[in-house]
Structures are given as structure tokens and as C-alpha cells.
## 1
Amino acid sequence: MARIPAAYLVNRLITLVLTVLIASTLIWIIPRLSPVDPADIMLGRMSAAGGTVADSEAILATLQERFGLNDPLWAQYLLYLRNVLLFDFGLSTASFPTPVSVLIANALPWTIGLMLISVVITFIIGNVLGALMVWDHSPKLVRVAIPAAMVFTSIPPILSGLLLIWLFAATLQWFPIAGSYGLLVEPGWSWEFVGSVIHHGFLPALSIVVVTFGFWALGMRGLMITVQGEDYTKLAEAKGLRPRYILYRYMIRNAILPQITAFALKVGLLIAGQVLVERIFAYNGMGKLLYDAILNQDFPVIQGVSYVIILMTALSVFLVDLIYPFVDPRIRHGRA
Amino acid sequence: MADQALQDTTKPDGPALTRAEIRRRRRYENPWFNPKLFWGAGILLGIVFVGLVGRVLWDPDLVFTGAGVLRLPPLGFENLRGQAGVLNHPLGTDGAGRDMLALLIIGAPNSLYVGVLASLIGMSLGIVLGFSAGFIGGRTDDVIRVLSDVMITIPPLLILVVFQAAFGDVNLTMMALLIAAFVWQSPTRLIRAQVLSMREAGYVQMARLSGASTGHIMFREMLPNLVPYLFGSFIANVTTAIVTAVGLEVLGLGPQRIPTLGRTIYEAINSGALIQNLWWWWGLPTALLALMFIGLLLINLGLDEVSNPRLRRL
């Protein structure tokens, strides 16, 4: 196994840090370019909401202090960067004294759970089907049916989600139409709760899987065609190895590597797509949080959610980059 | 090259080729004639055509609120209140009485417009940056490479959400410009990689030795070789841009006063159209968008065959 060379690690780390820095800077700068300063609106709303909250004066004063709203812009910016690193996005204006970080902490596990499950399923199904499309010994049905199914892969998950809700939740009523667990179920490690979560998560996950597996299948198909023409595959065939053994040991294992890199490029779109799926399924994740915040013009929450999702994306890309040398022993970064 | 290929197939070499075989051979020799590209382009042109001709044949003013009875079903169907579809609104009306047919006629070209404009701008930026990075190298290359690495991981949707939440209403062109800021990275990376590999190619060396200017080498010698890749990247970016625009619209952002397919879906979901079985309200824009994406995918698959001959099947 290859060790990760320091230069490569540093390179990826710089990209990671820059990504987070640029994203958080954009999130900070954009509202300040707008004609109305959201900070004013934010404080105005808070003091309005504050009428019903005890100690609101004190909270607002500490808030102004914490965000340095009376300091020059550059000081505000530096303070903002520090706060962002500490996941301190201030207080939600819609549900006033609740910190944004608490709202996000409640929503994040749902989003990550849904994403991991749908991504893993998609990646496996997509790559297996893509490989079977090229393999000479695949059943005829596979080679005809998959290309037909691929047509749906260009559709964003939100559209497939709408169709699935209508069909399975509204019309057939096999699955619940909204939420991430039943209203009557007590959250906890009980079978009832787990079952309810799976029941609620099935359609959102399915709507992502249905439209994304084709991307992997397509990529895999192209790679498999290349591998199929390689000498080592021909030799393996000539040696009379079993076709299934060749498929796995000689073809898939060689073809799958670039797919992992493609994954890094796709993460951003996947996460953004999932945010929308969560919104239409009213799934308790980041998507719903973001949508509610947009409805209520809850600016701190919008900022916080956007930042955390971008951070998630950047971290996943970073992880994929780090894993890559371990998967592909041919890669020796920067070493001949 | 294509001409030569055509001559080859008509030459009487060996047993006479059947007509079908000639057609297949021709398709192999001239990859631009492949059915995927044909169907994809056909679907998109069809949508554009309906959008253009529809404005003439159908009254575009029907997209406004109160153009008809609320929630009428399409012709031949009945809604829950027992109202049947009428000829004045063949595809039904939405919750505010807007004519669905007019909405589709006006909305679909709007989506395509955003996608194509954003992608064109992104592509132009990508061509300039990619060539600069590949050709000039050094510090310029480092900066462009790192910047595109960084920007490719930032999902455009979220930055645009922040933008819209702060600025409020935008028009279509503004939205396209904003999206364009996020679709230059993939053409940049693609062109940079290709330029790096082409830089040492024989014909580029020849051009350089014969004293051709850098501009000439970039645009006359190298760019034509990149055309299929650029087309592919362009179409992929159109898809990304439309997906992002629709995403914004479904979140209730995007243009507020212009009818768009995404906004229609947003209103349908919010009015409970899914539960009340008002399928035409959300279903028609969804289907049209799906068709648009399928068209774009087919074009992209067709272009893949152009740039990667191994995918062609004789």
C-alpha cells in the first residue's frame, strides 16, 4: 500500500482550506453588497421577536459584540471567519434565541444518513450494471434493458421525487408523504423507530438512486470498453480463465478507479440535488431547514446551512482524494 | 476526411455492400451522423419550435393569473370537483387560473435560455482560462488550476441561494450570469489537460517552427481538435445550469414575475397539488423538463461517440 506523500497531502489540504475560505467569503460578501444590509434586518427582526423573550436586550447586546457589528468591515470579516471555524453562525431570527448551530446539528445527521445510503447503493448498482453492459457473457436482457433505463439518468432527482411521491405516497399510499419518521413514534433505538425511519427514507433515497445510477453505469461502460481491449484481458481469456473471474479480477477492478475520481467531481451536485429532494419530501434534513429559512427570510440559518453543506462537499472531495492512492497502487504521487 | 470515407463506401471493393451496410459504414466513418445526436437535437429543437410557434398560435397572455377557471383538468379528464377539461385550456389550468399550455410555451424556452446563456459564458471563460493555463504555464497555470479545483467543489445552488436571499428578485439574464460563475471550471480543466497533451504534438511543433503566432496555434491549430470535447462540456453545462435554475425556482427563489417551469412546480407543491391529484399542474412542467434533460443527455452521448471512437459499434 502506498503511503500518502507529504507534497500531495499538502496540496489537497491547501485546496480544501481555499475552498472553505472562498465559500465562506462569498457567503459573507454577497449580503454586504446588497442594497439592504441583512445585519440590520436581522437585528430589527430580533428586537421585534425579543419582545416576547426574556433578557432579549442582553442577548442582542452580546450578539452585536460577538459579530463586531460596530467595528470596521475588515475586523467584522476576520471575526466572521473565526466564528465560522467555530460553527458559530449566530441566532436564528425565525425561532429567535435558538442558535443556528443547534438547528443544523439536529438536521445534519438526517442529511448525512440519507446521502450515505443513497450514494452507496447508487455506486454499487451503477458500476455493476455498467460493467454488465460491456461484458460478453451478460444476459441479453441486461444489455438491452439497461441502455433503455439510462434515459432517466439525466433527470434531476427532484423530478423523479415528485413522480414517486405522487405514485407511491399520494395515490397508492404505500409510503408516507412527508417527514423522516412517524409523528407517533418516539425517537430512540427501538425497532419501531428504525422501521419508521426506513419507511420514510425509502422514497427519498429511491428518487436519488433511480436517476443517479446511470451516471456511474455510463462511466463504467466507457472504462470497461477500454479495459476489454487491453492485452491482459485477452491473455486471461486465452488462458481459459472463467469469464466471471476475468470480469471481476481483470476488468472491473481495473476499470473502477477513475470512477472514484469522478465521484469527487460529482459530490457537489449530489448534495445540492439531495437538498431539493429533502425539500419536496419535507425530510427533516438540511434541505428542509434551508427551505424554511428561505420562507422566513432567516438569514443566519441560510448562511449557516450553505456553509455547512459546502464544507461537507469539500471534505468529501478531500477524503476521496486521500483514499485514492490506497485504492490504486499504481499511483505514486510525485514519485517516478 | 468525411468525403474520403463516403468515397470508400461507394467504391466497388469486393462483394457489393447492401444499402444498410453502407449506411452503417458511413455512420462509423462520420460519427456526427449518429442516432443519439439526431434524436437529442430533435427533441431540443422541437421544444424550441413549440416555444416559438406557440407564441404565435396560442395567446401568451394566458400565462397570467386568472386567465381561466382555477384548477381545470386537461381535456378529457375530470377534476375532483367534477369539472371537465375545456377546449379553451386544453392542458388545464393551475391554482391561479393560469393556462398550462401557455405556461409550458413560455416557460420551457426560458429554462433553455438560462441554460444556454450560462453555459456559453462559462465556455468562453473556460476556453480563455484553459488555454492560458496550458500555454503560459508557470504561475498562471498554478493560479487557474487551483482556482478551478476549488470552485468545482462549491455547489452553485447554495451560493445562489445566499445571493437571492440577500438581493431578492432577479431576471432570467441575471440568473444566467450568476450561474455562469460556476460552470467555467470543467471546460477550463478539460482544455488545460488537452492543451498540455497537444502542446508537444507534431503539428503544433510544426506551426511553432514555421513562426505561427500563439493566437494562431491556439485557435487555428488546437481548438478545432477540441470541438467534440467542447460541445460535450457545453451540453453538460447547459444541463447543470438548468438543474441549478430549476432548483432555485423550486426553493421559491429565482425570477418571481416571469413564468418558469420550476416556479410552477414550486407553487404546485405548496398548494398540495400532489395530494389533491392535480397531476397536470406539477406533472406537465416536470415531464417537459424531463424531456429536455433526456434530449441533452442524448446529445451528450452522441458527442461521446464522436470523441471516443471505441464507443462506436459497427
## 2
Amino acid sequence: MLLTSVFIAAVSLALFWMAAFTLWWQMHAWRTPETLAATKFAPPDGGREGSFSLLLPARHEQAVLEHTVERLLQSSHTDFEIIVIVGHDDPETAEVAERAAARDPGRVRVVVDTHEAKNKPKALNTALPHCTGDVVGVFDAEDQVHPELLTHVDHAFRSTGADVVQGGVQLINFHSSWYSLRNCLEYFFWFRSRLHLHAQKGFIPLGGNTVFVRTEVLRTAGGWDPDCLAEDCDLGVRLSSAGKKVVVAYDSDMVTREETPGSLMSLLKQRTRWNQGFLQVYRKKDWKQLPTPGQRMLARYTLMTPFLQAFTGLIIPLNVGIALFLDVPVSIAFVTFLPLVTALVTFVFEVVGLHDFGKQYGLRVRLTHYLKLVLGGPFYQVLLAGAAIRAVWREQRGRSDWELTSHVGAHLTRDAQGVQGAQGIRDIREDVPA
Amino acid sequence: MTSTLPVVTTGQATDVPAQPNDARNTAQDTAEAAARAAVQAVPGKAGDGRTDKTGDGRASGRGPGNRWLTVRPVVRFRRSRPDLLLCGVLLVAILLVQGWNIQHYPTLSDDEGTYLAQAWAVQEGDGLAHYTYWYDHPPLGWMQIAFLTWLPSLLSPESMTVAPMRFTMLLVSAAGAVFLYVLARRLWLPRWAAGLAMALFGLSPLSVVLQREIFLDNIAVMWILLAFCLAASPHRDLWHHFAAGIAAAVGVLTKETMLVILPALLVTMWRFSHRDTRKFALTGAITACALIGLFYPLFALLKGELLPGGGHVSLWDGITYQMSRPGSGFILDAGSGSYGVLQSWLYYDRVLPLGGLAGAVLLMVTLRWSVTARALAGPALAVVILTAVAMRPSGYLPAMYVIQALPFLALVLAGGAASITHAVLRRRRGSAESRKLTVVRWTALAALAGTAAVYVAPHWYDGNRTALTADANAPYRAAASWMAKEVPDPSRARVLVDDALWLDLVHAGYEPGLGAIWFYKADLDPAVTRTMPGGWRDLDYVVASPTVRRDARDLPNVRDALAHSDAVAVFGEGEDRIEIRRIVTAAAKSTGGTR
């Protein structure tokens, strides 16, 4: 009995500290008014010096590509080029891209990726030699980019001397389903808050788009890792391990808007891919070059998080059951409740976060959404656990091909939705940052 | 080599400084930011409201948007030498006044004995009490007493009795007094007013008497003050607010009456949090407080004692008992119990309770004009709530009720004094005021201060001289000593005794619980009455202190024991005397001794 008690207490305390740290980091941006203010873009001073090469990998995305390119061209910055990367086996998308290039040949170019097996890092690497700008930026074909973004990013590069600037990405369609609600909120907490902590600590897994890197830094680093399932995270880890300065900025009116995966299965696949990617990055050991033990701990912990999270989700109910139904001393029972306490605090902050999300984006969050958020929590946890287990299993079996996820353009404004409504759901590869 | 973007804006008037991760910068910059944020709350009004300059280190001026700014650099307490000095000197004075003669005055109270005995039970590993714990109060209070007295009782076990262990309360008083000073500074009171608040809180004869005693309320007040300090933290850090919630919960679990002060804490937190992070800070604090608080019912649940049931105590019954305690009448109704309690407070000091109340009223009335009043809205609200609760005609008003009001009374009294001083010195003062008028202002202030001092000093001198010199506990010591020396075989004797003397008897060799018996347990605790089927005949002695004689009216076994016993020793005289009475039974008469 004593042994059981000690064991349960040890597990509970470990879980408690884990959850507490995760919570601490998740709430980073709201810690003080000063930290919150520091997460924003500084207002541009009107000056301008850098030029941009914006990479836009597109694959079977003829429906949304044109709109995306048009919107990018509306950017207020004057010195940028758009390089659309299409596959040699994807004539429909290539046609749209060529059309856009013909309309504005000075600013839009098309690069064809001829790799047999295609993935995003290979596409990006294909385009890298063609970049003429000082800074390479990455977007996805369905991204809605704010016209002022480039000007702000330019200013951020100049005023901070950064090597990398990561802008905010936000899933918007929280009303689509119970899991998209949680998915949106995950993004909110990640880009609004946690990434800033990573930037501050000097270890950062970058996002998959709205990420800007000085071209020579990117070339020196050898571009993206074509074999990694989370090439964005990997790039961030490699650059921060090499001591490059990363700056993160989040402005709700300047985030890149995206949509959640269209079905539960595609969300599971997407999450599996990220998890597997995180595992790969962990095993590549680039993070071991980080100078301080604290940074290495943060790296280790961050890359392991999906798996710890899965574990926590399973243990908490078990723990409470033990406390209530087994005859353990009251003090031990108290300890077993600690992880639940942190979980509840996290829940409450998520509810407040949802409120803030609604406020920031002018979206109407109803009572049912809050209820969905709370009730969906345990089920989402199951999904995350499933994705984590699946990722480990796939990695063990050596399967590292890209699984396709589909999306339906729910985040786009009405004019764009007409297009995708006609097209229906297609299987297209989507890269969403971790 | 990475960092977040350093340049930021939050709006017109609140440019927030760069590099939030640089602690030293933040320290100064936050002060600026806090000062500027405070500005927004001060609309441009005609009159002196716009330049409510109540203290040192503040300046006023016109800011963007034609608003009058009140710039209040935040005090860095740990680095401010004058603050440390003032607080340190006052602390020494408080410790001297409260500590000197602490074991002799005031009279040992039954409650002190109860809590210390239960702390002793915790130390001994006997659970939460040596009798069945029945959810009378949450146990966290005496668990802390057990912690505080642990080292001294280890060094000298026989000192684990009420009078000597009062010295550990000095730690609580000291912490509370320092927290109060810090809080006063964080609520923007000038240095002298913070010192005044601390002196009122620690040196008022009423405080001296009550804070010397081993009451849960004193410990709970310390926690609540800590919670207020954290709520008004100049960092406006989410986790400081979270910690404030935890401290408040610990306060409530120490003494549940602290519950009524929580709204005042919330008000303070609201005022001192930033608009952009407020909703996270406040919900975080409330969640923390609620979750920690829930551990108490959880504890009852785990022990299977949450709801009433056959043959066991329950949290529900405990709460029901506390809520249904017979009322002590309307506080202003001469002749009611509550009135008596009020008079007992006013006997020790009138300045703090009545002056504090006046201060609270003044601050509430001037809420619109005075920055000080707005900063002190939380403490003023606490005074108002506590007054309202005390005014309930049907409520039960215990003597220690005033303890939880003391720090807030001190704060609002000092705040009121600061407001008046400001009004006298600066109201309608032009930029080029004549020297003559300035002299008039200072003379008026000196007159006011002088009057107050003349009124207060003699009262306080008398009250504190008694506290420093009187010996109210000689009868208790004599009784304890008699019981230790004159009873032939303490380990086999059964004695009814009040809680205050109980530990003395235990150290003298009496069996805790069934040998040395808390007198009312002889009637109220089935586990005790079971062992005395013959009622009073199964007892040997009654140590009849005033408490025992008073409560015996409602306790048949105790009443019988008093009736069937002879006084064998009497200490002290009159109402306060302590009698040691030996039970007279037929058997005892024939053998002439104890069993």
C-alpha cells in the first residue's frame, strides 16, 4: 500500500509540474500588460529598405490560389516578388499560376517543382535559388494576407536586426464544429502567447507560413529539410540553435487567416504528421547545440509535449478514480488531485481565451460555444492522444510520407466561398504550423 | 539571441516600455506605466480633484487628450531606504509592545487553549484534534499553529502551553504589520501615512490585546493582507493575482469568516489590474481561490464526512451549527450581548474602531474627487462590509470579530488622514501662493495633528501600560501548579478543565482526552460520555474557571460535577477566581482520596 501511495504521489506530482509549466507558458502573453503590449508589431516608421521574395507553394489549389495572389499583390509594400511553386503533375494549378504571372509579370513568377514524390520542403527548396529579395517569406495557397503585413515585417527586420520574423497565423472558423473551436483556440494560445515566450527564451519551432527569413541566412542554413514532416519546426530549431535572432509579432488585424481541417479524420492526420515531425526534429538533435541547459530543457520538453499531453489525458481520470475509490491516505489523495486542479485552471483560462478571441476578431461567441469548449475538452484530449500514439506507431514503422488533409475554405469571405462551394471538397496538402 | 519585438504601443496615453524581460528595466518602467495607466482613471475635473497630490513622489501635469495626469512612481520597497527604515523601526516598536509581558496579559482565553491543543494533537500525529474533529472550523489554522510552535515545542516540550506559546504569535503580528505597510504603499499612501497605518494596526491597545492571543483570526488576517498586497502588486502580474487568490483561500481556510472580505479583495484587484489583462487576472484569481477552497469539502468527501449520516460528524453539520449559533442581539441595543462585545472593544481603544469607521465613510463619500479614496476603495469596502455584518440584529458577534477589521480600519484611518492633510495643504493652491497662506495651512495642519495626538496619547499610554505590566494569569499558573503537585496520581485522575489549562495538565501527566477532559466534552462528545456512565461520579476534580462556571448552566454533567464537589484550593478572587474542586462521592468520603 505504501508503495502504491508513493508511486501515485510521484506520478501525480510529475504531471502537476508538467501541466503547471505548460499553463505558465501558455499564459505568457497575458502575464503583465507590458508583455502583452510587447507581442505586437511596432508601428512602421514609413521607411523601407528590404525586398521580399514570397514563396507560395500550391498543389491542387486552383480554386483559392488566384484569390491569394491577388490579395498579396494588394500589399502596401512596394518591393516584393511572388514565386508560385507548382508541381509538374498539376496542370490546373499551373494554369492559374501562369495566368496570374501573365497579368503582373514584374511581380509574379512561377517555378515548377519536378520532384517525383512531392512535399512542401522540396517545393520551397526548389524555389529558393530563384529568390532575389533580401527576405524570403512563406505563405500557403489559401492564406488571407493583410496588405499592411509586409510593411510591418520590413520595419520589424530593420528595427530589431532580426534574422527571422514570425507573424501570427490564426484559424478563424471556430463555429464550424466542436473540434474547430478547440483547434482555433489552440492557435490563439500558440501564436498569441506561447511563441513569444519561445522567442524570448531563444528556442522556437517556427510556424509553416507567415514566416520571414533573411535570404542569406536561409541559404547558409541549407534551406528546408526535405525529409522532415515538420520542416517549419525543424527550420526554427536549427536557426535558433545556431543563435539566430527570431522575433515574433502578433496583431489580430494582421494575422494570416486560415481554416481548420475539414473533418475530424483530416485533423487527426494533420496532428499525426506534426507529432511525427516533432519526433523527427527531436531525433535530429540539432537542439543539443543550444547554449544553455535551460534552453535544452525547453527544447526537449516542447518537442515531447504531444506525447506528454497524451499521457496526461489518460492519467488524470485514472488518478481521480484512485483517489476516490482506493483507500489511500487523505494526503496522498490530495496530491492525486493536483493535476486535475491545473487542468481545471487551464480550462478556465481557455474559456477566458475564447472570450478574448471573440473580442479580438469581432466574432460573436455564444454560450453554446463556451459549452462546446468545455464539454469538448475531454474528447479533444482523446483525439490528441490518438494522434500521438499514431505518430509514434508510424515513426516506428518508418512511414514518413505526407498524409493529405483537406480543407473547404470556410475562413474565406463570401466571394471566395462561392468558388470552393462549386468545387466541393478536394484532397489537398495543407501545411499548418505546429 | 532571440527576443520578442521590443517596440510597442497600447494606445494614446500608455506607451509601454520595451524589453519586458529585463527585470531591472521593468522595475522602473512599470512604475511609469502604472503611473500613466492611473492617469486614465482621473478625468479632468475642476477643483483640486485633478491634482490630488497626497504624498511624496507624485507630480501632476496635463497629458495628452487634455487630461490631468497624476504620476505616481511605484515604491520599490526593498530598495527604498527610508521605507525600510520606517517600517523597521515601527516593527521593532510593535514587537516590543506586543511581546513584553505577553504571557501575563490578557487573560488566557478558552479559544487559545482549544487551537493550541489541537495544534499539539497535530504535532503528536493524533490527527486534527485529540477529540473527534467535527468541522467546527477548517483545520488549516491550527495546522499553521502546529507548524509555528513545532520548533519551540521540540526544544522544550513542556512549554507547549498557551502562555509561553503566545510568543509565536509575534511572528504572525510581525508579518501582518509588514504586509500592511507594504499594502499601504502599494495603495499609493505617502510614507508617513503608511507608517501611521502600521502603527495604528500594531500599537493600538485593542490590537495589542487581541494580536497577542493565539487566535485563528490573527493568522487569517495575515494571509488576507498578503492577498491584498499581491492584488495591488505594481507588476500587475497574472501570477501575482493568481497567488492573491491562493493566499485569500488559505486565509478563508484558516478562519472562514474571511469569506466576507473577498469582495473587497476583488475590488482592489480590479482597480490595480490593467484593462488589457484584467479578465485573465481576475478569473485566474477567482479560480485559484475557489479551487484551493474546494480542498476543504474534498477533504470531507474523502473521509466520507461531507454529508450528515448516522454515527459520524459531517462538514454539513459543522456549517449548519456555525450558521445557526444563537444571535447575540443588535450591536447598538444596550443590554444585548453584541453591545457588550462592542463596549469591550471600545474599552481598549476608541480611536481605531470609530476613527477607522469615520475614515471609511470619508473615503466612500469622496470617491469621486480623491485618488486616495479610489485607491483605498477595497479596504474601505472591507470596513463597510464588516460593519454591515456586525449590525445584523440576529447575528452572532464573537469577541474576536474585530480582529479581521483592524488592518482595514488602520488603512482607511491613515488614508483619511492623508486625504485631510492633502486638502489642508494643497486645496486651491495656486502656483504662486503667498508665504503667509502657506504658514496658515501648516499651522492648521499642526493644530489638527496636535489635537489628535493629545486625544490619543493618554488613552494609548494607559492601555498599553496595562498590557505591559499587568499579570492577569497568576491564578491560572497557580492552578496549573497545584494540579501538577498536589494530585497524587495524575495519570489516573479524571479532571474537567477548560481548554486554556488543558495542555498544562497534559504536561503534568494527566491522560489527554479522557483524563484531562475539556469540560464541555463531558456532555457533548459521545466518545467521552460513554466512558463516564456514572456521570459526575466518574470524575475526580473540576478546575472551575470563569468559563466553566459560565457554561455549566447548559451542561448537566458539568453542573452536577460542580454541585457535588468542594473547593480544595482557590486562586484569585471574585468573578475571575479559579477554584479547584474535588468531587465528593460516597466512596471518596470513605477512602478520603482519589481513585
